[in-house]
Amino acid sequence: MSGKYVIGVDYGTESGRAVLVEIAGGREVASAVWSYGDGVIDDRLPGSGRLLEPDWALQNPLDYIEVLKRTIPAVLSQSGVSPDNVIGVGTDFTACTMLPVKADGTPLCTLPEYAADPHAWVKLWKHHAAQPEADAVNALAAQRREPWLSRYGGRISSEWFLPKAWQILNEAPDIYAAADRLIEAADWIVWQLTGQERRNSCSAGYKALWHKRDGYPAHDFLRALDPRLEFLVEEKLCGDVYPLGVRAGGLTPAMAALTGLREGTAVCVGNVDAHVAVPACTVTGPGKLVMIMGTSLCHMVMGHDERMAEGICGVVEDGIVPGYFGYEAGQSAVGDIFAWFTENCAPYRGQDVHARLEEAASRLKPGQSGLLALDWWNGNRSVLVNADLTGMILGCTLSTRPEEIYRALIEATAFGTNKIIKSFTENGINIDEIFVCGGLPQKNRMLMQIFADVTGREMRIAASAQTPALGSAMHAAVAAGPEKGGYAGIAEAAAGMASLKAERFVPDKGNREIYGKLFAEYERLHDYFGRGENDVMKRLKEIRLGVTAD
Amino acid sequence: MSGKYVIGVDYGTESGRAVLVEIAGGREVASAVWSYGDGVIDDRLPGSGRLLEPDWALQNPLDYIEVLKRTIPAVLSQSGVSPDNVIGVGTDFTACTMLPVKADGTPLCTLPEYAADPHAWVKLWKHHAAQPEADAVNALAAQRREPWLSRYGGRISSEWFLPKAWQILNEAPDIYAAADRLIEAADWIVWQLTGQERRNSCSAGYKALWHKRDGYPAHDFLRALDPRLEFLVEEKLCGDVYPLGVRAGGLTPAMAALTGLREGTAVCVGNVDAHVAVPACTVTGPGKLVMIMGTSLCHMVMGHDERMAEGICGVVEDGIVPGYFGYEAGQSAVGDIFAWFTENCAPYRGQDVHARLEEAASRLKPGQSGLLALDWWNGNRSVLVNADLTGMILGCTLSTRPEEIYRALIEATAFGTNKIIKSFTENGINIDEIFVCGGLPQKNRMLMQIFADVTGREMRIAASAQTPALGSAMHAAVAAGPEKGGYAGIAEAAAGMASLKAERFVPDKGNREIYGKLFAEYERLHDYFGRGENDVMKRLKEIRLGVTAD
Fold it and tell me: Who's near B234: CB < 8 A, 6+ residues apart?
């Protein structure tokens, strides 16, 4: 084989996946997956066996190295592609997934003196034990009207960088002191590959409150939060933040030996798994919403300027594609709700309950069931940012059938997305078309048509089933650059390497009209239960807590 | 056997049941059931095969005679009791179940010239084709502020006597003209047994708008409704209405031959199946709520005076026990909701889904699920009188379990009952204790405890599993009178013949407190969705109608 190739490595929650992609045309020639040996560490610490508290979720950074060692030689060998023709490597990661390291990048958890302290390990994105810290950050930022707060929908998550860093300081000051750096795993793996510490603008912007012009939160805010945090940025972070697609450096001799690639092969700066998928859906500019649909739903869109919209998870300049403001929003449960229904409420068992329900539900017309649901089975992320909200279904009669409930749940998630689209567009962030990727749309054509009918937008599905890895490979081609056979920018890479499935899901005019009426009812209930008029959902949770605490 | 006995005959929807009861102690010595040959006629007319329209439900009056012929000899033969020792016969019927007859009581449908017209047959209680007539009655009565309207919760049902009679006049004027009488089946069967036309105060009061002092609706109202109806009462009804427990007459020779009983045996005036069960639950005076719990729930209580309470189905002087005002209210689906859930939403099949759900649900504490439901799967009869309302459930999360939903549905029906109790008591109709009968409480101890905890009232269950038939037998003993070995009144009969199961369901103080909080949330949603603040349920039904009409 004589063409040029790139490798994308996608670090997920349970495993890492490498894909080898041909630069001309974007064909995915080979892929390999390696499951982390220590997986998600949420029970006992490896080695010491130390018991973890609830809400903790850690990882072992050596598992990330093992992914490189296992998957890159595998895709080379599967494909028969010569390392000489692999011009770049790109990576993406879950975020915020962060760890404390020494000045040379050595993770503290790999050093015997720290290995028995949970705070020395990688805090995975879903580590939720820093909620008190997040609450304090939110309270102080709101009180001081910090300018950055509105860029994150008025509230930051316990999953983010600052609460996690502060939790280390509060609970393990010795670990905090021993750490020369606190770093996103996305940037740490690039450091390992290249020997260069290069922080990426996506992780920094969406998870660490970094802003292209304003930088990180100001000293006086951090001091007011905790005097020991005043110089957090200077002491534990590295000042420079690099745009996506930039070459971080060349592959080190050690990493060349580990992976079988050539020393000096271009390595791209890191990226976040959701955001890197956007150009892999062919999207590199404004007006096009990308939805990553799986157990939850992540919405990403770009705009020409910085605007505030209710319930966005973040707006970051250069956060998705350099030159644009990247907006992110989300629904905290989508596929999870359908799975809940099939497991708990479908009156039959067997091979494919989903397929049986979809078959029956797809024969229903919009509005025919008389049902309406609020899709809050796991709270509401956008636009209400309220984890205390719960799911509701209304319109049940003695003749209500399971497939009617199933369809109403799908419709509710589409209404939730439409509410987010409405918030974006009402704030001047334009959305003309929708592009989807992830596991759900591949399997569920009815869901696609319902989303098209509810949102009134044409929907397309990404051709690739592994858009994050493909996106990382595309960024690698940009990092390598045209002189090496790559691309000048991500737009060119998308034109050359990303594609869509042929099928278009076009809104049906009649369905759209009925869904318009149903969405008006959804909005009214959304506001009634979600904006404080009747906080019954929160009060039921309080009653529940009181009962279960007895 | 030497004691004295009475026979009660309970005419249900599908069959008639006779019970032979010993007067001293109320032991149910023998019982027999006969299913109507023509059952519920809702498809084609017997004989002519004429197709019926939707919402029609008819019966064949000869099936009622067949019940007497089959069941009374059977209980005599089973028990070995001599007809000489059977001192009375009592009957009760579904209502309003009515038919057109000649002056001698001959049903028009038994005459060849009328048999092919559906309007010549018995209109069963659940014949719902007179809705346009009911709507017109309600509209005119409301406009004219008819004094009787508030005694029926502001709205009469299409099931009642006046809409059914008017439908005959509108659609089959020749049948209406040929009918010398329009009569409740409850009174027709007594006429057949005794040769005497004796209308009972319960059917007349609850179903035909009769009032002890004011009589039937006035001429000018009926004339305004339809000039042809002005003299409905004089032309088609019989002026006199008799209190419950009165002797209608003695068994005719023909009926003595048919049943094997003695000619002249006392026969009681008719009664309604729900109301006759009240004294069979030992209740013969105010302060005690009787609930007949099955697919739906009927609430009955007595008071010393006539008061108006929201959502009552009717208040009738002497309507349950002579000397008191009888109040009726209802929930249009209770057992039906639980059956719906097990059939449509329980994620397992097999012998006893109810038992499996109850076992798991009974281990939950009140408030533990975080769920709250509105029990409107078949609309709301009391207190909102609105068939357009639909069921709702709220508080769902990804960890919600089927048994939690099941329990929430039971709790919702208990909240619905509590709302009715609150309406009664706030209007001066006192309720101290609750007595239940019907199919549901026998099987479901958790349900009983939940109702006790929610209502804060001690609950007892009737000892008899066939309270309507027992109640009819008790009334027969009253009709026979003390001189024949019977009782002087229904209170004496209840003291002598009715009893309760030993078990008492006593409200738990802790549970009561939590249910108080949950009921406050239920009431708020009840009013929000039920009193016009958000008519989303009605609008969803309209959207549904528009879609299915296409």
Answer: none
